[in-house]
Amino acid sequence: MIKEIKTHPQVDSAVYVPSSKSITHRLLFISALALGTSTVRDVLYSEDTIYTMDALKKLGVEMWEEDDGLNIKGTNGRINPPQERTEVYVGNSGTTARFLCSFAALSKKEVLITGDERIKQRPMEELLKALMEGAVEVKFLEKEWYLPVIIKGPMVGGLFLFPKAPSSQFISSLLMVGPCLKYGMELVIKEPPYSKPYIRLTLEMMRRYGINYGATEDLRLFRIPPQPYRAMDITVEGDASSAAYFWAAAAVTAGKMSVVNVYPNSKQPDIGFLSVLEKMGCTWERDAVGLTLKGSHELIGVDVDMNDMPDQVPTLAVVALFANGKTIIRNISHLRGKESDRIQALINEISKIGGKIKEIENGLLIEGTGGKGLHGAEIETYNDHRIAMSFAVAGLRIEGIKIKGAECVKKSFPDFWEVWEKTCYAKA
Fold first, then answer.
1. Would you state the torsion angle of the CA atoms of residues 133, 134, 137, 140, taken in this order, to the nearest 10 degrees?
2. Number of domains in the chain
3. Is position 231 within any domain?
4. How do residues 3-18 score in pLDDT, each as one tens digit?
5. Residue-wise pLDDT tens digits, 348-358
């Protein structure tokens, strides 16, 4: 599917974004580990989260929709799949794959985890090594340290050592099963982990389900005693990652955009994108409509560390084209292991529309021209939802932007294109 983006001189609207994908994933797994039946409201039903739901069901977790919530009957950490070997397909959902590895390690039966060709290239080594050091059996079916793998527990806990963690999902995966282990968990990470706010988000969700834990401020040492998760009735908030594209639309058109269901005190890492846009000359506030960003006619380039917000690197790179001066995006080498190699994808596609971009050590440099000299092109998305949605922002200012493989947005925001058109082209 090819989607042509219409230009628009100035957006002025409000939007209700889908529920958070990051929170939905965490609540699905934690509810499945809890003692009792949890009700999760405003669940995000996207490609990735449906992979997670299907995986949990295959492993014997009961869940059903009722009224306005998804009920999940917890296992109290005792995972017992119905078959001696259960095969689970995760598509290209890195979150599902990584969280599932530790979850499967609680089972005495074999769990075969596989997915599409891209997921078979994405990093898994450090997590799988940690599981193996925890006496979990891991068998590689194709390439060593990559999916597909067969995992068989049960993991009993104790001390886990990580020399480094290229993805915060490795740490979150282990932390979530920690309370369910016979001896609890002590987790030590030698190097500072990537994307720390996502680890804090995991800890916050665990806390809401009644878990007590110890963690150092730098998130390199964790202690979790054995204890049950308590079932909850909990609501998923709006997705700050999805909201960012609409705030970016206001930024590049010097317009205004209110997001109704995302809040300034959110624990979601991508709420920080508002502060990045503020440094570029925008303003934002919590008003009667929602969290509102007002764009600027004079965006300026920024020098920013995006380690904590990897999903918004493509969004920032596109916004930077319409700023004046250099934008330097630092500390993002881990983006090569995302749904696509996002560093190379951005270099390819920004160059294609006439933008000036180059790779620097552990980052990117974009020469902003205030949008001058840019032109239309067919944008290759590499089946990466973040690339597709980011270049929709560019299309508001550049005639002739066409997004190839536009259906890839279903990974996190299934009705993105309908919401985009209804919102960005609305009459103020």
1. -50
2. 2
3. no
4. 999 999 999 999 999 9
5. 999 999 999 99
CB 239 within 8 A of CB 17: yes
Q: Is 308 a catalytic residue?
A: no
Candidate list 270, 311, 341, 415, residue with the active-site label? 311
Which H or E run includes 181?
A: none
Q: At 123, which CATH number?
A: 3.65.10.10
User: Looking at the structure, do residues 270 and 403 belong to the same domain, yes or no?
Assistant: yes
**What percent of the chain lies above the pLDDT cut of 70?**
100
Nearest CA-CA partner of 48 in 27, 16, 24 = 24
Residue among 230, 254, 390, 233 at smallest CA distance from 310 = 390
Residues in CB range of 106: below 8 A, 6 or more apart:
77, 78, 79, 153, 154, 155, 177, 180
The CA distance from 302 to 320, in Å, is 8
Q: Report pTM.
A: 0.95
Q: Which domain holds residue 406?
A: 3-17+238-424
Last residue of a domain, one of 199, 223, 247: 223
Q: Which two tokens stand for residue 306?
A: 């995006």
* Token code pair at residue 234: 């909990």
Report strand pairing: 137-140 vs 85-89.
unpaired
Please report the beta strands in 149-302, taking only residues with DSSP state E, as ranges in sequence order. 149-152, 158-162, 185-189, 214-215, 221-224, 233-235, 256-259, 283-286, 291-294
CB distance 95 to 125 below 8 Å: no
Question: Based on the domain organization, do 111 and 257 belong to the same domain?
Answer: no
Domain-ending residue, one of 170, 192, 223? 223
138-186 residue pLDDT tens: 999 999 999 999 999 999 999 999 888 878 999 999 999 999 999 999 9
Helices (H), 306-384: 313-320, 342-352
Which helix (DSSP H) or strand (DSSP E) does residue 26 occupy? helix 21-33
Does pLDDT of 336 surpass 90? Answer: no
Q: What is the pLDDT of residue 334?
A: 85
Domain assignment of residue 174, yes or no: yes
Structure tokens belonging to residue 175: 């932390």
Q: Distances from the Cα of 336 to the Cαs of 184, 230, 275, 343, 345, in angstroms?
A: 33, 37, 25, 6, 9
